[in-house]
Amino acid sequence: MYRARRQSTLWESGEGPGNVPLVKRKGDTIFYALLATSAILLLLTIHWAFLKAPIEARMGIVQKIFYFHVPSAYAMYIGATSCFCGSVAYLLKPTDVRDAIARAGAELSIVMGAIVMITGPLWAAKAWGYFWTWDPRLTTAMLSWLIYVAYVVLRAFSGDGPGERKFAAALGVLGAANLPIIHYSVQKWGGQHPTVVTGKGGGLQHPDMKIAFALGMIAFTVFAVTLIYARVKLELVKSRLSRAEEDAIDLGLDDRTEA
Amino acid sequence: MNQEQPTQPTPDGRSTDFKPVEGAPAEQYSGGALLVEAYAAIWLILVAWLFMMWRKQSSLAARLDGLEAAIDRAEAAKAKKAAS
User: Fold this and answer.
1) ipTM given for this complex
2) How far is A124 from chain B (nearest CA, A)?
3) What would the DSSP string read from start to end of A12-43?
């Protein structure tokens, strides 16, 4: 009854079944543009890293991990910054959007951090002769990753009330405190982690290496924004649905148990 | 052939002693294999996240179905009440 009528109304208003709009909304256009740009840039990065950039003299082909490892770490920073900004904004004025940005940022940090934590040791196996060492940058990066894992676990297993959201926001702010420590750990405490980009050495010594790296950084920036955008949208739908369920219960409709 | 194979060096051992090997030392890890593993890991992680997002979306769709069913039931009860 309701579903059939809603579906027919959606078709008449230019929307398809299951709330899939037949007419594009502005937000969808932004998402499609971001997705297409990410795909093109990622393909360009792969092309430049594998087919244009020369093989490094001492490490060989494994050095090509660098063109995705560093941009992934940068994308992890983007996620962490989103989590921080969303959390601070939520603590100042709680809204669903701010909470969704913080949550999406934390998840992106975990995903990109996992890429960093796996690709880094695979490079290290060749360059250093072992997969892992308790180097300052490696240790602080892992600590930061664990903080965001804690954030997501907290959100998954606690409720979604204002109290839980505020507690998570505090953790999101706390997690960001480690970011500058990761960045400056190599300068402050030394260690074995390379400083090809930020160090005072020769850096990338071929123009195609520089282009591949720049493309990787741009591609992962756009990709990170795309992923956050998609995740925020999903989280907002979840919040709207939760409110609709609460309203339904207030009106005497028990929608959860008798589905 | 009794060729001494290079052993896994420790960080401290590298700076305190140098052990000779006869002939060219065997490659400890293949750079190509490590590179392929790294790229496979990147795509696997991203696909895993996509899968988790899909699961969340499916869960929302199930909750929406429940809500719509509740509205259906309320409408049916209202129509029944009006008829009687």
Assistant:
1) 0.77
2) 10
3) HTTB-GGG-BSSPPHHHHHHHHHHHHHHHHHH
